[in-house]
Write a structure and sequence with these properties.
- This protein has eleven helices and 18 strands.
- The protein has helices at 14-25, 64-74, 76-84, 109-125, 146-152, 171-184, 234-240, 293-296, 317-331, 335-339, 392-403; strands at residues 6-10, 29-33, 97-102, 142-143, 158-164, 188-191, 196-201, 211-215, 218-223, 225-228, 250-261, 269-273, 278-282, 287-292, 297-301, 342-354, 375-378, 381-384.
- Helix 1 packs parallel to helix 6 and helix 1 packs parallel to helix 11 (392-403).
- The protein is globular.
- It starts with 5 loop residues before the first strand and ends with a helix.
- The chain binds flavin-adenine dinucleotide.
Length: 407
């Protein structure tokens, strides 16, 4: 690729926008397509923002999943601060996470303890450990003594707890900065409310040459390259260029509770894993993310392209909020401190595409792994499975390095 390239980027979530901004820096003209009315309307705005160091993948003791996310997550903060021209300090959760092992966890306590230690070793050894959201060059997972565990959960279902140095970011805030950066960039043309239907080589049979995009509005002008970052819509477009889905996959639509309290509430950041799954993120004492996986799961689809989100049967938001709070409070009694001070609450959701299928309660479900996402290529058409929010800016940067032949 050279600076005269004209690139179509499909999908304006964190992946598409990161790629667009990196390409624009090189002088490339980018056209960014999205079917929504604005960038960042989906999963990239409404997620927990955990910047994964790999601790969550204890059901993959090979460490392949942990190692797959580690480098990109350690680089998340410096890359985004550079890309967005602003510090993330104000939107990083202030405390480390507490991982709670449920009695029905698919990973027994001792195996989880061993796994968390192994991940900590990898984190500490990594040369970029000090670049993370907080300095993790001394990373350790510490098992909570019984008194400290009792203060977090008095439930007989919680059998152990571990303090791990993982943090999150407020993704709604970051989404707003991305949208502003994309709008302000003269090299990026945004084409929102334009649904992508396919891609075709401009010269039949020559994928090494330019490409055109088929959208609901018709066939576009030609672009030197196409980069497909459509997340739940990605594989359907790949099929139009001959990349057939392989292996297993799932598209799960998940809803969570995003709330703000009227005054600061001191609570931990806690995650119940692995199997029974839910979490509470306390970003700054007033802004919270709460999820209880079975309550928030609207659809688990094995279709190549899941149905449009607006066609799903959505529950009443107040009733869903109540369910999530009730289920979390059964395990974590301090949730009532949060619910008694709610100033504003909203249920939001997004798709989770995964190259895996099954139930979280199944120890051998391929959903417990995240080690096989990345980029596929046919000539000048590239398709990116984002995998995780945590690693998206790094994956985008690496992709642009490769396209420019940087070493
Ligand atoms: C509840 C929840 C919690 C999560 N928590 C975390 C977490 O803590 N940490 C983490 O790392 N990851 C997390 N994730 C996953 C993370 O949100 C995603 O990996 C990431 O946001 C995907 O980014 P993306 O840019 O690929 O997709 P998106 O943000 O979904 O962007 C894709 C865009 O493509 C558009 N699109 C799709 N199909 C078409 C089409 N045919 N034509 C035109 N436009 C189309 C969509 O409108 C969308 O704007 C979570 C996800 C959810 C839902």
């Amino acid at each position: 690729m050279n600076t005269h390239a004209r690139v179509a980027v499909l999908g304006a979530g964190i992946m598409g926008c990161s790629v667009a901004l990196y390409l624009a820096r090189r002088g490339v003209s980018v056209t960014l397509f999205d079917e929504a009315e604005a960038p960042f309307c989906g999963a990239s705005r409404w997620n927990e923002g955990k910047i994964h160091l790999g601790y969550i993948y204890s059901a993959d003791p090979t460490l392949r999943s942990a190692l797959h996310v580690l480098e990109g997550s350690l680089q998340f903060r410096p890359l985004l601060e550079d890309l967005l021209g602003t510090s993330l300090q104000a939107v990083i959760s202030e405390q480390d996470d507490i991982y709670l092992c449920h009695r029905n966890s698919v990973v027994p306590v001792d195996a989880m303890a061993h796994y968390l230690d192994n991940v900590s070793d990898k984190v500490r050894d990594h040369p970029a450990a000090s670049h993370y959201l907080a300095d993790v060059s001394q990373a350790r997972a510490r098992r909570l003594p019984s008194e400290a565990l009792g203060a977090v959960s008095d439930s007989e279902h919680i059998v152990a707890g571990f303090h791990v140095p993982e943090r999150s970011v407020e993704t709604n805030w970051i989404a707003n900065r991305f949208v502003a950066a994309v709008h302000a960039n003269p090299k990026i043309t945004l084409r929102c409310e334009e649904r992508v239907l396919g891609a075709i080589p401009a010269t039949a049979g020559n994928p090494q040459g330019p490409w055109r995009i088929q959208t609901a509005q018709g066939t576009t002008e030609s672009f030197s390259h196409v980069i497909n970052a459509l997340w739940q819509g990605r594989m359907a477009i790949d099929q139009t260029v001959g990349i057939e889905p392989s292996g297993v996959w799932s598209n799960r639509y998940r809803q969570s509770l995003f709330l703000r309290t009227s005054e600061p509430v001191q609570t931990p950041c806690a995650i119940v894993a692995t199997g029974p799954f839910g979490d509470i993120k306390n970003y700054n004492g007033r802004d919270f993310y709460l999820s209880w996986y079975p309550d928030g799961l609207r659809l688990d689809s094995a279709a190549v392209e899941p149905p449009a989100a607006h066609t799903l049967n959505m529950p009443n938001p107040a009733a869903l909020s109540m369910d999530i709070l009730n289920h979390l409070e059964e395990l974590l009694p301090w949730v009532r401190k949060i619910r008694s001070r709610i100033e504003h609450a909203r249920i939001e959701g997004g798709w989770v595409f995964a190259a895996g299928r099954g139930e979280l309660s199944d120890p051998v479900s391929s959903l417990h792994k995240r080690c096989d996402y990345g980029v596929q290529r046919v000539g000048n058409y590239l398709s990116i499975d984002t995998g995780k929010y945590s690693t998206a800016p790094w994956t985008a940067q690496q992709l642009v390095y490769k396209l420019f032949g940087d070493t």
